[in-house]
Automatic annotation (TrEMBL):
Name of protein: FecR family protein
Keyword Transferase: no
Domain FecR protein: start-end pairs: 113-197
Regions crossing the membrane: 74-93
Kinase in keyword set: no
Organism: Flavobacterium anhuiense
Length: 307
């Protein structure tokens, strides 16, 4: 039985390579490859997002064989699944990460910053996780935002683009500063200085300062950014003058990695002025808000409630 399946698969692959397969046969090959890909054991922390990596493999092969030649989409799933076999033999073929020791940096209740081997600085929000190589090697500087939010100040190096994987999108820069906000529902990239390219699911947008990209529901869009996000409030004191409680809460959610719960949404329109020191704790900021608004915000783990 196994020999017969193997023979049939070899026959279809050969037929496909010669462009002789029918639509039904191509669908059969795609379904088989996708099934093998889905059933593979994939380590996201070590290997990155499977959809992104399989697409990267697909695009790399297209570049090598030439985009004008016929290339079957199912091959990206076969190529991605084959990485696991090579891992079992002691190989790791993720582009530009060969032989690089990967470090995972996590934060708890307060934001922290790190400096990478190329001089780039990453300001990581509370309750976030970031992965990077101990030393950059190869022609790209590749890192991953695994969870939460971060502000990037990327050292300029035209010869070695800086690439960040975050969820299902990829952000590519040479040297610039920007926010990435990653949640279960969406991912945002907000540019403060320089130029940035954001891509995902076959879509791509270029950004300049004051612009943001939003990836949500498998769609990538470009829009103007909120002024409040055009500074590095991880490393700067920020004064929010005559703003709304909603605006303040939005920044606190991103900086401290928390979510807010409240029964009365009308409180979000409350006007106030708040001073947020770069090293202030969430509790310190909430004390200010409670004093100004007469509300009672309290922290319960990663959730802030109005008691």
């Amino acid at each position: 039985m196994i020999k017969r399946i193997k023979h049939s698969l070899e026959y279809l692959l050969d037929k496909s390579s010669r462009g002789k397969t029918s639509s039904a046969e191509e669908n059969l090959l795609h379904d088989f490859a996708f099934s093998e890909y889905q059933n593979s054991k994939w380590d996201n922390d070590f290997m990155g997002n499977p959809e992104i990596e399989s697409q990267n493999i697909y695009e790399e092969i297209q570049l090598r064989i030439g985009r004008k030649r016929s290339f079957r989409p199912y091959l990206k799933y076969i190529a991605a699944a084959s990485i696991l076999f090579l891992l079992g033999l002691g190989f790791f073929l993720r582009p530009n990460v060969l032989n690089q020791k990967q470090i995972t940096f996590k934060t708890s209740s307060i934001p922290k910053s790190i400096q990478l081997s190329d001089g780039s600085k990453i300001y990581l929000a509370a309750n976030s996780s970031f992965q990077y190589p101990e030393k950059f090697e190869g022609d790209q500087r590749t890192v991953s935002l695994l969870k939460g939010n971060a502000f990037f100040e990327v050292a300029k190096d035209k010869q070695h683009p800086f690439i960040i994987h975050s969820g299902e999108i990829q952000t590519r820069v040479v040297g610039t500063s920007f926010h990435i906000q990653l949640s279960k529902l969406n991912c945002k990239v907000i540019v403060v200085t320089g130029k940035v390219n954001v891509s995902g699911k076959g879509q791509s947008v270029d950004l300049v300062p004051n612009q943001e990209a939003l990836f949500e529901s498998q769609k990538l869009t470009k829009q103007m950014a909120d002024k409040a996000f055009l500074v590095n409030w991880y490393n700067e004191d920020v004064t929010l003058e005559q703003t709304t409680l909603k605006q303040v809460i939005t920044i606190l959610q991103y900086k401290y990695g928390v979510s807010f719960e409240y029964d009365d949404k009308h409180v979000l329109a409350t006007p106030l002025t708040v001073f947020i020191k770069k090293d202030a704790t969430l509790e310190n900021v909430l004390e200010q808000i409670n004093y100004i608004t007469n509300l009672k915000f309290k922290v319960y783990g990663e959730i802030v409630k109005v008691d």
